[in-house]
Design goal:
alpha+beta, eight-stranded antiparallel β-sheet, 3 helices, globular
């Protein structure tokens, strides 16, 4: 199974922008969870993480996106971070067959925020972790 990135509908309501992505990953949800819910995992593909308290209302500081709170936390399924200046980042994982998972990503922000191209680049880095190197070994974050 190969991964894929699909950009969903983007909406604007006044000064609020909402962008959606659907990323299919060739790994089980349990394997992907640390990539969206742990400082080391997020730092490897998304942005450097200075602080991440992995619990509801925990503190989070995402270097390129902002600092704030963990606003949703359902272990192995949902991690949501609301950061000042960066808006709301929601990572929602679902099963995709026997060995895959789907990441439904939502970025809601006001004013300027990371572009669709910037998010696509980040998700390409995430997918690169699930590929194989020349020796056929799987790479994981």
């Amino acid at each position: 199974m190969r991964g894929s990135i699909e950009q969903g509908m983007s909406q604007t309501h006044g000064n609020t922008h909402i962008r959606h992505f659907l990323v299919r990953l060739p790994r089980a949800m349990e394997d992907v969870w640390p990539a969206v819910a742990a400082a080391e995992g997020l730092s490897a593909w998304c942005t450097p993480v200075d602080v991440l308290e992995p619990r509801l209302d925990g503190t989070v500081a995402l270097r390129d996106l902002g600092a704030g709170r963990v606003t949703a936390w359902d272990v192995d399924r949902v991690a949501e971070y609301t950061v000042e200046g960066g808006g709301r980042l929601r990572f929602h994982l679902e099963r995709d067959g026997e060995a895959g998972s789907i990441l439904r990503f939502t970025h809601e922000h006001q004013g300027e925020g990371a572009s669709a191209a910037e998010w696509r680049t980040r998700f390409e880095r995430l997918l690169a972790f699930w590929g194989s190197d020349e020796r056929g070994r799987e790479q994981v974050p």
